[in-house]
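Chapter summary example: a protein plus iron/sulfur cluster.
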Amino acid sequence: MIAGMDPHLLPYAERQAPRYTSYPSAPHFSADVDGALYQSWLGAIPENAALSLYLHIPYCKQLCWYCGCNTYLTRGRDIPDFVTTLMTEIDLVASAVGSHNVSEIHWGGGTPNILSPREFLRLQHHIAFWFDLAPALSHSIELDPRHVTRALVATYAQAGVNRASLGLQDLNPHVQMAMGRVQPYAQVVEAVAMLREAGMHDLSFDLMYGLPQQTDHDIASTIRLATDLAPNRIALFGYAHAPWLKRRQRMIDTDALPNAAARFEQAELARAILRDLGYESIGLDHFAKPDDALAKAVRARTLHRNFQGYVPSNAGALIGFGPSAISRLTAGYTQNIPAVRTWQRIVESGRLPIMRGHTQSADDTRREAIIEALMCDLAVDLASFGGQAAFPEAMKALAPLAQDGLVEINGDVVRVPPNMRPFCRLVASAFDAYANSETQHSEAI
Ligand code: SF4
């Protein structure tokens, strides 16, 4: 049984904070970074740096109302041209980077399993043509369980995909109707069975709280049904209602959304059930079995955070391909143009399709490390960054949070107590030099 939210915490739960999959967060990127600068950054990647590649497939067969991703509806006619352009973008980037070892490949979207087996293999072979794939390659893909087929699963196995992440969100029909994504549990069971039969045993499920019509009972039954399928990892996200950014979210009945206190209780209920089922908490919102790479990374303190969420180690450079994809190099961040047709036109003209980015200053780099430590380890020792005295504005912002128990400050060590884990984005935001009231983010919980 979860106790209700302490009323003095409510104002904190209602505050907004970035998700900190980057620092600065993407809304603070600017047009100062263009394709020419990105090209020079790519050329400066050290020869021995391992690369992590992200391929963004922006298409879906249906658009779910709750979705905040950069996605487009298609009946499939656009896909062959899209694949051709993606291969051209890989050519452009690979020519600038030169031959490198690739330690990670991640296919995200959108719906990567909208690609046919032939299209997927064309892209995979193209990557293998340009780059050296590490023998212990971490190769993962996001899948819509409604569109998993035996032919696709066999293709992934052939290509060495070794982790699949399935979007489940909520498994109750009335919640699925209210969120605009109907997905019977039987389809999920069948997709998981196909993946396991093909030898893919590392499975991750995405679940959500804060959805319209969703009750504590719905959360509990979803977790029980999901964990019956024994995934090694679970990511538990709070639904971020931001219809000013995503028009499709206007379909969602705002009156059916839980308030901040109910969201907090749902998140805590989910956390308690998952803990009882043997899953360890990873950072803010992930859970893993003790033998999973993420749980091991927490113990070894090698956990990192990037646009894919939590990862067990840090590659030398993360390179994103496809519309809206973000790249992280030592010098800074870049983001591709999100509109597919514009992205296509720029790539086909032989230029890198960069819309915006950010050059990291020395101050950005140290704040990024502090925020990442808080998001991964729930603690940071400021002694490595000049001590408390180097961050007077952050310490001032943390003082009321410390008074209310959201954070503990002992000398230079700033720590989020385990029971205050849901507030670690707020604690991290104290170190965010770009935080301002004009940028709207999602609720802190
Ligand atoms: S939730 Fe997945 S399938 Fe639905 S619109 Fe978003 S990316 Fe597409």
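Key point: The mean pLDDT is 94.
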